[in-house]
């Protein structure tokens, strides 16, 4: 399975650059603060540890929407990203009404690990106050990060404690 890379960088007041890549392709979006995007991502990845096998969340690109669909397939996750031209018109649309822009299958452990590391990197760089100052609309999703980290360490038997000193 290809190596998964994920990053989340605050790139301006109310904007973040989200990048996901595997060994064969990459997707990068400039995400708006109109949704609590990082929290939505963390909650959806944590949801992969629940009985529900499909989780969706959207990033607002003003005006476009990118919708991530995470489907758990045993120990793996099918990650599919669709793009819609206008979030105000597409939010309730079926996935297949969008354009498929990226897909990859990764282990749940690899996805969780990459997302946790990216969120912790943001927290280390900006702190909770700095995150709120740059992201503006929403505080840093500390509880969502703690929940995902706890589930990942317990369920995936991850030996990396993922900087438990951070929230």
Radius of gyration: 15 Å
The termini sit apart by: 31 Å
Main-sheet strand order equals 4-5-6-7
Average pLDDT level: 94
Helix content: 25-40%
The strand count comes to 7
Helix count, DSSP H or I runs of 4 or more residues: 4
Report the sheet-strand fraction.
25-35%
Global morphology: globular
Structural class: alpha+beta
Give unreliable regions as ranges: none
Instruction: Describe the sheet with the most strands.
Output: 4 strands, antiparallel
Helices and strands, in order, run as EEEHEEEHEHH
Task: Describe the structure in your own words.
The chain has helices at residues 37-47, 87-90, 108-135, 142-155, and strands spanning 5-12, 15-21, 26-32, 54-60, 65-73, 76-84, 99-107. With 167 residues, the chain is an alpha+beta fold. Helix 1 packs parallel to helix 4 (142-155). The protein is globular. 33% of the residues are buried.
Short description:
This protein has 167 residues and is an alpha+beta fold. The protein has helices at residues 37-47, 87-90, 108-135, 142-155; strands at residues 5-12, 15-21, 26-32, 54-60, 65-73, 76-84, 99-107. It is 34% helix and 34% strand.
Record keyword descriptors for this entry.
167 residues; alpha+beta; four-stranded antiparallel β-sheet; three-stranded antiparallel β-sheet; 4 helices; 34% strand
Layout of helices and strands, plus pairs?
Elements: E1 5-12, E2 15-21, E3 26-32, H1 37-47, E4 54-60, E5 65-73, E6 76-84, H2 87-90, E7 99-107, H3 108-135, H4 142-155
Antiparallel strand pairs: 1-2, 2-3, 4-5, 5-6, 6-7
Helix pairs in contact: 1-3, 1-4, 3-4
């Amino acid at each position: 399975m290809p190596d998964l890379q994920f990053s989340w960088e605050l790139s301006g007041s109310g904007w973040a650059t989200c990048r996901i890549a595997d060994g064969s392709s990459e997707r990068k979006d400039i995400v708006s603060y109109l949704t609590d995007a990082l929290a939505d991502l963390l909650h959806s990845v944590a949801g992969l540890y629940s009985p529900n096998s499909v989780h969706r969340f959207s990033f607002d690109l003003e005006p476009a929407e990118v919708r991530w669909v995470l489907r758990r397939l045993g120990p793996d996750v099918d990650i599919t990203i669709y793009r819609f031209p206008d979030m105000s018109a597409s939010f309730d649309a079926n996935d297949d009404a969008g354009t498929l822009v990226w897909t990859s299958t990764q282990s749940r452990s690899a996805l969780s690990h990459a997302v946790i590391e990216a969120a912790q990197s943001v927290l280390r760089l900006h702190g909770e106050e700095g995150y709120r100052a740059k992201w503006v609309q929403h505080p840093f999703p500390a509880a969502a990060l703690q929940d995902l980290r706890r589930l990942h360490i317990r369920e995936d038997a991850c030996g990396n404690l993922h900087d438990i000193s951070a929230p």
